Predict the 3D structure of the following.
Amino acid sequence: MAQTNEPATLIDAWLNWQQQRQAADQPPFDWTYSFALRHVDADQLADRRARLIAEIEGLGPVLAAAGQQPLPDALARWSRRLQSMPARPARSAEPLGLISLAGALRQNPPMADIDTLGTCRTPGWVEAWTLTGVQRIDWRPGMSVDTLLDRLPGSATQGLDEVSVITPRGQARTLGIAAWNRQAAPLAPGARLAVRLPEHSQEAHIINRELAAFLASRLPGDDCTLWPN
């Protein structure tokens, strides 16, 4: 029977790639910025992105007709940014690095389930999706949600109570930012923050959920290497 060197599981693939990098005198993986993409997630990305854009473009005119500025303007900016962002390359929003899998071997997926894996250099930014649009801001040591918001104009979050915060590992959580519900949280380089729309409609609920999910699928940096490449 012919022998194959193809890795059977994701752990095998990480170990093989790690050995190749070591042999080439490349730096070790930073597991905070290393990721994998499952086929099942890859197959859904384009459709979920298209649905998100459609929901945003459908809700904007409704809010504008109701006089609810500046939300329609923000949604138009988000739509333009999303249209400029291809669905792939992407990641599954779960910890699939070697360190995480080594602590939960039963969750080690077969490589037949994996589309690709990759690693990024630590970026120097955090990304904010707010009422003033989408911008990247230089990360600083000790940066938190509060210090990031302090660097944005007040109009960026005016009248809003919550944000979604997405870590470089693809984990998303909702935090309060108003005086009555404020929650502190650190921000690592490559984190993303998106203000959450008031959920007065099903469309707003869908946008909040799907935007956080799409941002969680983005690569955690710009200087990335994918395997196989």
The first helix runs from residue 10 to 23.
